[in-house]
Amino acid sequence: MQHEAHTHTEHEHHGHGGGHEGHEGHQQHQGHGGARAHHGHGGGKVSWSMAAQATLHCLTGCAIGEILGMVVGTALGWGNMPTMVLAIVLAFFFGYSLTLRGILRAGVDFRTAFKVALAADTLSIAVMELIDNGVIALWPAAMDATLAQALFWGSLAASLALAFVITTPVNKWMIGRGKGHAVVHQYHH
Questions:
Q1: Percent of the chain, pLDDT > 70?
Q2: pLDDT, tens digit, for every residue of 44-99?
């Protein structure tokens, strides 16, 4: 999954014509139609800053979906379980959507972009949702708070912050092994 095919025009963007000769990091990409190197990914040292940026990217999509799901479910008077399920589904939807948007902008076809988004974000979003929803479920009275209560917004903000803190090391580990957002970075150079 890490080495999806790219067009030679992407290579030309980097001033390398169509060949791989003399271009550092591309030796492993021979036969992949001009794939870009994963500078700093897949075995290289991964900074906490890079991991935090990947986590923040995921958290943005998750937070949009999570908040929207909680607001919609609460406003419609749904029970806790349907509201939580809606929030989780929307978190995955918006998490994947943000990644898809960036990859599609790089000129990648939808099917390939979708596969890359799944590979890049699934574990990160799953960990984030497990932590986020676990905190809200365990926080006394948070599941019964209404939109007008500070407890609703406070518990949601605290759960998202904790999800960020716990998911960042997971993303650092994944990027260091060429997984997760390392897969996406090849489309953003």
A1: 71
A2: 588 898 888 888 888 999 999 999 998 899 889 899 899 999 999 999 999 999 98
pLDDT band for position 149 (50/70/90)? very high
Do the Cβ atoms of 82 and 75 come closer than 8 Å?
Answer: no
Task: Kindly report, residue by residue over 126-136, the tens digit of the pLDDT.
Answer: 999 999 999 99
49 contact partners, CB below 8 Å, separation of at least 6: none
DSSP letter string, the chain: -TT----HHHHHHTT-TT--TT-TT-GGGTTSSSPPP-TT-SSS---HHHHHHHHHHHHHHHHHHHHHHHHHHHHTT--HHHHHHHHHHHHHHHHHHHHHHHHHHTT--HHHHHHHHHHHHHHHHHHHHHHHHHHHHHSTTGGG--TTSHHHHHHHHHHHHHHHHHHHHHHHHHHHTT-THHHHHTT--
- The rounded distance, in Å, linking the Cα atoms of 61 and 114 is 15
